[in-house]
Specification:
The protein has about 450 residues and is of the alpha+beta class. The strands form 3 sheets. Strands 5-4-8-7-6-9 form a 6-stranded mixed β-sheet. The protein is globular and about 65 Å long.
């Protein structure tokens, strides 16, 4: 006989979570999918939290942990695994809850198998895309190898993240504190008025860190944090690099830079505080920028890294696209994956955002596997500091699966009752045969060409 799950009464904790989020009982009940009277009984301690309610609480308020959350975490993972579109329709929620409660060892096995399946699918997609693009694994550029390393790592590096969070608690958020700590390492910050100078230049012999004087404050602070992280966490970074499969010196050095950048993000936006504030603000990027003194891109990127086991944030995807449609930075904690070679789907809202700087655009989209996403994109311009040099123009996008729309402020501007926009990964991998925006036929499908018939494209996918 399975041992009964202990009953969990957490009325005071539940009430504190609701008040911290600024919700009344009606709004909180709607979030959790329960009645107001049931919520009132839970908060008064008259009824215990069930695993399904605790799972809903964890999804909607990931920063608020309630004691004995293991059953809820298991139920959330099991429900996610069984809801995968590649599987037959999931059983009723009552059956899933019963399996999680009565046979936890089976539930954990299903969750592990689903995690392994998704990882295998992603690796297979990488191989298929490289073959379709004529690029072998050995021919990957160092930048691509490092980008894939972060993707496979889930864009979360636990030892660096925790070390940076601890240092942030010690120093505080101010640039002056970072500079003082650097001085303790024998590094003095120097600003140059030469706009053509590198953004950051470390002279180890003289002990100076020279920063371009045209940098905006948030970029200057981030580069100082980068240098501090590279020094403070050199041992941890070396250990990670030595354990990676980077084969070339260039790839290893790029990985070091990427890890120091990751730690700088964790130093300027400490994990627990950033996750909590982001949830309270419903992931409003502009508000997060003001609160933490960071740039729009830095805040978006940091949100995509909030995947600490047991304290995850909302799973987001994030990427950066340049004016030519090249994806120069990407990560996904969702089921959505990006093209590694070539351009992204032309129907994706990020391409429109590149042409409209400083304006946020939103989109409700659906991928070929039937998963729906809500996303925002914004075109950004990085000033060059001189009329003689062109500014950098690009766009960033951040999105999540539609089930998290209530916690993503940008979804409020979408009419999700209307049909979503059908998007894919890239034309070479997209199975849709009726897309007017297709640039290339799918790599795994045949085509027929009728000289007497012309549609939007001069072939038909079969």
């Amino acid at each position: 006989m399975p041992r009964p799950t202990p009953r969990l009464y957490a009325g005071e904790q539940l009430r504190a979570i609701r008040r911290t989020a600024g919700l009344n009982q009606a709004a909180m009940a709607a979030r959790l999918g329960i009645s107001v009277s049931y919520l009132s009984q839970l908060e008064s301690g008259d009824r215990p939290l069930t695993p399904s309610v605790t799972a809903a609480l964890r999804r909607r308020h990931p920063g608020a942990l309630i004691e004995s959350e293991a059953p809820a975490m298991r139920l959330t993972g099991l429900a996610t695994a069984l809801a995968d579109p590649v599987l037959p329709p999931a059983p009723p929620s009552e059956a899933i809850e019963r399996l999680a409660e009565e046979r936890p060892e089976i539930a954990d096995r299903i969750i592990a198998l689903h995690t392994a399946m998704r990882a295998a699918e992603e690796r297979l997609q990488m191989v298929e895309e490289s073959m379709a693009s004529g690029i072998s694994g050995a021919a990957r550029m160092p930048w691509e190898a490092v980008r894939d390393w972060f993707h496979i790592a889930g864009n979360y590096v636990d030892p660096l993240d925790r070390a940076a969070e601890a240092l942030a608690e010690q120093l505080g958020p101010e640039e002056a504190a970072f500079a003082t700590r650097l001085a303790e390492h024998g590094i003095t910050i120097v600003a140059t008025t030469d706009e053509t100078a590198p953004l950051r230049a470390l002279d180890r012999r003289r002990g100076t860190l020279t920063l371009n004087g045209a940098l905006p404050p948030e970029s200057r602070r981030f580069l100082i944090a980068h240098q501090l992280a590279a020094i403070e966490f050199a041992g941890t970074i070396d250990e990670i690099v030595n354990g990676a499969s980077a084969s070339s010196i260039e790839a290893r050095n790029l990985l070091r830079i990427g890890l120091a950048n990751y730690a700088a993000g964790a130093l300027t936006m400490p994990y627990a505080r950033f996750r909590t504030v982001a949830r309270q603000m419903r992931h409003d990027i502009d508000r997060l920028c003001r609160r933490f003194g960071v740039s729009f891109e830095q805040a978006c990127h940091r949100l995509s890294t909030l995947q600490r086991p047991g304290a995850e944030g909302i799973p987001f995807y994030f990427c950066r696209v340049d004016m030519a449609g090249n994806i120069t930075k990407r990560h996904s904690a969702t089921r959505l994956q990006f093209a590694r070679f070539g351009g992204a789907c032309p129907l994706w809202i990020v391409h429109e955002a590149v042409a409209i700087p400083d304006r946020i655009v939103v989109q409700h989209a659906e991928t070929p596997d039937g998963v729906r996403y809500v996303s925002m994109a914004k075109g950004l311009v990085k000033p060059s500091g001189s009329f003689t040099r062109s500014p950098r123009r690009y766009a960033v996008t951040l999105g999540c699966e539609a089930e998290h729309a209530a916690d993503f402020v940008y979804a409020d501007a979408l009419d999700r009752s209307a049909p979503p926009i059908p998007i894919g990964i890239s034309c070479r991998l997209c199975p849709r045969d009726d897309c007017d925006q297709r640039a290339f036929p799918p790599a795994d499908r045949d085509i027929t060409v009728d000289p007497d018939l012309r549609g939007t494209v001069p072939y038909r996918v079969v």
